[in-house]
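ERR on first pass: missing label on line 2. Operator R.T. fixed the label and resubmitted. Corrected input:
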Amino acid sequence: MPATDYQASFLGRISLRRNQVIAMDGNHEQEDLELFSKHVSERFTELLSPPDDVVFDTLLSISWLRKLLDVFLCCEAEFKAVLMMGDDDHPFQISKPPLDRLIHEFLDRSIKALDLCNAVTNGLDSVRHYQKLAEIAASALGQKPIGDGQARRSRKALNSLLMAMSVDDKECSAVKTTERSWSFSRLAVNKDRSPGHLRQVAKKWSAAKQIQAMTWNLVPPRGAEGSGLASPVYTMSVIMVFVMWALAAAIPCQERNGLSATYFPVRKQWSWDQSITGLHEKIAEEWKEKEKKGAAGLLSEVQKMEKLVRNLMEFTDSFQFHGGTDEKAEEAADHAAELAEICKRMEEGLLPLQMKIKEVFHRIVRSRAEFLQALKQGGKSSAPPV
Amino acid sequence: MGKSQNGENLGTETVSDGGDEQNNPDELSSEPGFKFDQILKDVDQFIETLDSGENNFTCIDQFLEMVDSEIAAYELRKASAKFGLNMEEFFEAVKLLWTIIRRLEELPSDSGATSCLNRAGSEHHRAMLLLENEFRTLLDINTDRNEGETKLKTVEEFPYFSPESVSIMNRIGSTMIFAGYEAECCIAYSGLRLKALDAELSKLSFENINVDDAERMSWESLEVEIGNWLHIMKHCTNNLFSEERTLCNSVFSEHPSIAQRLFCELSTSLTMRLLNFPNALVLPRQYSTEKLFKFLDIYEALRDLNNMEIGNYLSAKEFMSDTFTVQCRIGETAVSIFSQLENSIESDNAGRIPVAGGAVHPLTRYTMNYLKYACEYKDTLEQVFQKHNEMEGLTVQKVQENYIEKDDRFLPASPFALKLVEVMDLLDANIEMKSKLYRSPSLRYIFLMNNGRYILQKLKESTDIYDMLGHSWSRKRTSELRQYHKLYQRDTWSNVLQTISHEGVQVNGKVSKPILKERFKNFNALFEEILKTQSTWVVSDGQLKSELRVSISSVMIPAYRSFVGRFQSYFDNSKQAGKYIKYQPEDIEELIEQLFEGNTTSMIRRS
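pass 2 clean. output:
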């Protein structure tokens, strides 16, 4: 069914209610809501197909993630405008029930999203580490002809790489190899540390639990509750959860057990619902496949890298120098070139991705401040002064 | 290859015992089987004559054998202390090996060099592996250092490496980089330094706090965390970063750009971790006004961090922008906390009940003390407000408003100074409003004087505030106070003075006794009333109190004295006089001293 039909029925429901309110203002808001939904739908539909410059068979590549985050930022900006403008039409609407509660829940979710941003940024360090090791192997195996020395050098690097990937995959690895970068939460620390040092802050941090918590109470607004603005709040919440989920899926971050089964409470009623659900399903499928093999994040580049690494390991394991070149060596050289290509993508894409995540982080912080301000002005302050 | 060409003898001259040769590479060069110098000479020559048609790789093979056995011997040695006295020799050999490889690679593929090249490559990797392992062992401070013949001491201070260790690391690093293994070297270095920094932070009880958790923490817990964080930041900016940089520069002294890159990466990682906490703090909750100072402390710590030289490498920009962003946010938080002060002042109604006795209002006290404390952070606050204005795009206000008079000059006012003026104006308005709650005009003036005086006193105690508000501001205040004083006098005492005025006592040229009696009665009543009431009033400022009393006395006592002196004789007898003239001038003097004491019971002496 074409998207417009969904929107028509959606509008139909809203306009009934709108008739009870000042007609003129209602239309204005209604248009905005319509547009918002439409844009969300369009943007996410676009995401169903990978970006042009990407050649992977899985969705979660670095460029796709960057696009996803851009989509998030666009939607967020529009969302804010809709809510604040809706506020102009009906001042302080957002600080009245049920909207105030919904917005508070949304803001709580956004805080959890911040932690996820941090975790993912941290996880990018792991990916960079893979890149460095892969570069060694790729360049050593790119020589012609390959000698014993190069073979062993590659093998060492490839081995370290595979180990690093499997360590990242295990949940809360307390044992870090020396190449590992920071532990994010106080959880994964030196086993030697005596309990007396640790300050009581909170339970173990887990990406899976965090996202789980974000889906708490995430229900589509029902008829009675649905003042116009409740639905974009819901939409934006879903978007936020989805984006964080996709990031956590792609990039190794702490404790992702059970994440693949995250339940997305959507009704396939709205068009944007479909695109997001479609993406979710696609990614979940990919995940299920990989989960059997055990993988450090679904990032396409990392996936491909892993495959190449295993191939090359086989090659180096059975390598015997004979002074000439043969089919196997040719193949290995090709794989090495592909590996080098992936490293190049990472080199070019990881930093921009990291900056994008940071941008998202700061945007969430800023928007949160603006919403709290608006809520406060509505007469209900969020909390008594600390 | 200077050594061998000069024929310098690097090894010891003594012939080693055959059985030892496998375990003691230091003396390898003197082993009869390997004529080290000769081999090197041959190799050099070989390299130079490499392009001629036929190549005899024998000397290379010999060289490779020698290197191979040296490596084997080193590998057998226990941890650390691997490279002893003759390590330089070994490093040179390794470098030479790499040079050979590069030269051999240049040969066309049919020159028969292939198998030799392969063997060389193999040896090379083995040597690199050895070096890398040794590098890691040296870098990993947790390794037990007591094995091995030479004990490399560790030192007590971060990063805990002895100069000998650093020197060996330096040699290893250079060699690895020279010989094409820069990547492995840097990976090892970064990884182990991160681990060491992690351990160091743990030692300082540094913990990561999630944004989610921070959001839910009580202020008491947060305050503890802030204190800890500030302590750690100080340690980092004062010690950690510079020590780390020194280490990078020492280990990679021959490769400054690599040193810089590695340092950049490490410090960026370290900083990102440090910034997590203040990032969590800037999520707006309503911080009450006294939290300002903690935030200013954080701001200053971040500013110090930002001022550190990290270098120009790519990740440095990231570092700068991160720190800067957080610093800004903290600054914004500080601004909003400070603005709360304005809100508090404006909304302070105190239930419309005036302060008893016209005393200094708690709000006045709070505000002035707050401002005084705040001005200890004056420079930081100036920065913070300057930045805030820039970000808000606030344009400079009209000229007159933006200038403050100081010593009869007009100086441009900083954003913070303007804020200060705003706060003071609000306070004034509030005091003004509160003064109107008093029904008695006199009490009203006392109240205004008390608060005004308190403000001026506080200003005197803090030259910073005084300077920022400017000279004329204080002058205006002072003259206002004088005004209130006059008004008070008039309101309270003019009626009393009228009762002891010489005029109107006489009727038809004669002193009228009834009028006199009336006068004294009125005087007594009025005076006692004033005493009763105004003794309960409070003037806490000693100087103001005495000023008031003195000015009252200086008017009242002479007037009373002269009145009494003039008219007391008109009473029939002293008994009658005593009935009406309750007070002697000295009594009045004493009783005036009771004014403004804040007494709950009046103590009027009756004569």
